[in-house]
Amino acid sequence: MSDHPYTQLPTEAFWRESISMRHPMEISDIYRPKFSIDKTQKIATAGSCFAQHFSKALKQRGYNFIDEEPAPNILEGNLINKYNYEIYSARYANIYTARQMLQTLKRALGEFAPQDTAWYNNGRFFDPLRPLIEPAGYDSRAELDIARTAHLSAVKRVFESTDIFVFTFGLTEAWAHHVDGLVYPMCPGTVGGKFDPKLHKFHNFTFQENYDDMVEFIELARILQPNMRFLLTVSPVPLTATASGEHVLAATVRSKSTLRTVCAEICDHFEYVDYFPSYELISSPPFKGFFFEHDMRSVSATGVDFAMTTFFRAHADDDNIDKNEKIGAPELAQNELQCEEEILKGFGK
């Protein structure tokens, strides 16, 4: 046979040699970092629920994790987590979509001022964009406004000082305010507020919308910190529910496929953007669903550790790694995750 490009390809380019002939736990070289990440660099995180594992792993391994909105001394133990402190680099709670991430930064910079600023339920005030950070709500509108102002100042500080920003895409589906396009973390009425079909509309963001939003976010963030680099991931966690009209399985595949393609395109175009394949490591067929709990949605402790171990090994010096050491991070139990989307389980019939 004549020589051709496929004769020069490495083992990992072929499915049989790199996948079929190996035990799932022996599959390797899936993640090859574009740039190094070490413990001297300031790292910030944001994203969907699965991103919380990333935050904890970074802290447990001694990386320079930024937290610009730390818990007050009055809070201890489980209350810190309950009130959404020490989960991300600011107290923004989960950010599921690229548009929500972009709007969060724009709000911090004073470039976007949404109309819907407070929900009033049973004598208490709630932040529409962080409805669960204060489980019992605020005493007054003034108290809510003070908390929001402090939060947005913290968000700005994050982007002024971060060297590496890690963002985990979660969803393409979202609910938005019909007038100004404000994207909510959850549909109004599910975790607070009241749903109004005249004000609230469902939107399933397309590839182009997600791409444009993330590129705009990246460019805006690099105005504050010109040397900032980005690590994108896609959450492997399937949708809890879909409002698209599709079966939830089809909707999940559509959403994750769109987001994965967005990541690929952005990484191809920007040398300072990399992708970590948490989605592939957990969800791909060769792993046979082994990394999911019985509900086939919640990622197991084994899955979390496998993903995090893959990440840290790729960024560590081989001489400093004990090959028999479990180098992931103590996993978050499912009931420790702060995940608004989980509430949708209660609406099933």
Describe it.
With 349 residues, the chain is α/β, with parallel strands linked by helices. It has a domain of 213 residues. 32% of the residues lie in helices and 12% in strands. A 5-stranded parallel β-sheet has the order 2-1-5-9-10, sandwiched between helices. Strands 7-6-8 form a 3-stranded antiparallel β-sheet. A two-stranded antiparallel sheet has the order 3-4. β6 and β7 form a beta hairpin. The longest helix has 22 residues. The N and C termini lie far apart (60 Å).
SSE topology sketch:
Elements lengths: L14 H6 L21 E6 L3 H10 L3 E2 L12 H5 L15 H11 L10 E3 L2 E3 L14 H21 L2 E6 L3 E5 L5 E2 L15 E5 L2 H18 L4 E6 L13 H22 L3 E3 L2 H6 L17 H14 L35
Parallel strand pairs: 1-2, 1-5, 5-9, 9-10
Antiparallel strand pairs: 3-4, 6-7, 6-8
- Which regions contain 5 or more consecutive residues with pLDDT less than 50? 317-327
Can you give the mean pLDDT? 92
Helix residue percentage: 25-40%
What is the string of SSEs from the N terminus onward? HEHEHHEEHEEEEHEHEHH
Going by helix content, strand content and strand pairing, the class is alpha/beta
How much beta, percentage-wise? 5-15%
DSSP, total strands: 10
In brief, what are we looking at here?
By secondary structure, the protein is α/β, with parallel strands linked by helices.
Keywords:
349 residues; alpha/beta; 5-stranded parallel sheet; 3-stranded antiparallel sheet; 10 strands; 32% helix
